[in-house]
Amino acid sequence: MTAVLEARDVHVSRGHNAVLRGVTLSLAAGEAVALVGPNAAGKSTLLRTLAGLLRAAQGVVLLDARPLTTWPRDALARAMALVTAEDEGPATLAVEDRVALGRYPHRGPFRPLLDEDRAAVQLALERTGIAPLARRWLGTLSAGERQLATLARGLAQEPRVLLLDEPAAHLDIGHQLRLFRVLDEVRVTGVAVLAVVHDLQRAAAWAQRMVLLADGRVATDGPPDAVLASEECARAFDVAIRGHAVPGSPHPLYNFEERP
Amino acid sequence: MTEAGRRRLVLLSLLAALPLAMAAAVALGSVRLPLRSVVASLVSAAGLPLLGPPLDAPGAAILWSVRLPRVLLAALVGGGLAVVGSTLQSVFRNPMADSGLLGVGAGAAFGAVLAVRLGWAAHVFLALPLAAFAGAMAAIVLVYVLAHAGGRPSLQGLLLTGIAVSALASAGTSVLLVATEEFRVKTVLFWLAGGLEGRSWTHVQLAALFILAGVALLALLSRPLDVLSLGQDEAASLGLAVHATRLTVFALSALVAGAATAVAGSVPFVGLMAPHALRPRVGPLARHLIPASFLGGAVLVVLADLAARTFSDRLDLPLGSFTAFVGAPYFLLALRASEGRT
Question: How many domains does chain B have?
Answer without folding.
Answer: 1
